[in-house]
Specification:
This protein is mostly beta strands and about 260 residues long. The protein contains two helices and 25 strands. Strands 1, 2, 3, 4 and 9 form a five-stranded antiparallel β-sheet that branches. The longest helix is centred in the N-terminal third of the chain and has 20 residues, at about 1-20. About 25% of the residues are buried.
């Protein structure tokens, strides 16, 4: 009898230990299709301190899409929790990904929950571009205004073989700001314009928000007459700074459910 009791106790201890080690909850991958975009959820998991998943947004339109995650919310056991992630854009016919997470205790015990995806906007194809005055390097003033943007140079380095200039821009308009730094060029003494060699993705800026970017040029043709260390350079903003109207797309609800196959 004593051996049987010990065996039962031992098996119970093993079961308790195994259960205690099961501290992760895995969820199914899935895809939701809409007219303008697809939402793909992968790698969803909950641990004792947080729940998270990777959200892929596939832009199926010829327009930019913007996503402001703070308009979305988790709904877990009847309670609502805000999403705290930075806004970003999805270029036409491109896909962008963002890991969305919610910090808190006990989510590894939640077998299913939902996320209301709100804040996806379709930007108008008719962008308003602001060119502003040419910006001289070296600068005569650190700050300049380009339409509804305030642009401040943070640092620059002029050398014969390479010139770089780092800027911060703040959008002060009432619409949606779109900064496309790949459109920038510099005018040299030979009268020609040269595109920046720093190819950065377009960035989204809402009212009052700021972002930074860097422009760069490498050694110019023309010898001493175009030596960047010796001559003035004039940055032409072209269509770097833009704003657009936007239309909000309908909200979409994601249903995350435990995946028994991943639990094995």
């Amino acid at each position: 009898m004593k051996k049987i009791i010990c065996l039962v106790w031992f098996l119970g201890l093993i079961n308790t230990f195994c259960f205690a080690q099961k501290d992760k909850m895995y969820y199914k991958d899935f895809k939701i299709e809409t007219a303008d975009y697809d939402l793909i959820v992968v790698d969803a998991i909950s641990i004792p301190t947080e729940t998270k998943f990777k959200l892929k947004i596939v832009n199926k339109t010829a327009s930019y899409l913007s996503y402001n995650p703070t308009e979305s919310k988790f709904i877990i056991n009847g309670a609502e929790y805000a999403v705290k992630e930075k806004s970003f854009i999805i270029e036409p016919d491109k896909t962008e990904s963002k890991v969305v997470n919610l910090v808190g205790p006990g989510y590894n015990n939640v077998k299913s929950y939902s996320v209301v995806v709100s804040g996806i906007y379709k930007l108008s194809l008719n962008l308003t571009a602001f060119t502003g005055d040419d910006y001289k390097l070296p600068p005569s003033a650190n700050t300049t205004n380009v339409g509804p943007y305030t642009v401040t140079i943070e640092k620059f380095d002029k050398a014969s073989d390479k010139t770089t200039a780092k800027f911060t821009c703040t959008y002060n308009g009432e619409k949606t700001g779109l900064v496309e730094t790949m459109n920038a060029s510099v005018k040299m003494p030979d009268g020609k314009e040269y595109a920046t060699v720093k190819k950065e993705k377009a960035v989204l800026v809402l009212k009052g928000q700021s972002d930074n970017f860097t422009l760069a040029w490498e050694r110019m043709p023309g010898g001493r007459a175009n030596d960047m260390q010796l001559v003035d350079m004039f940055i032409k903003w072209n269509k770097v700074f833009n704003e657009a109207d936007k239309d909000k797309t309908p909200d979409t609800t994601l249903m995350l459910e435990m995946d028994p196959r991943k639990e094995q």
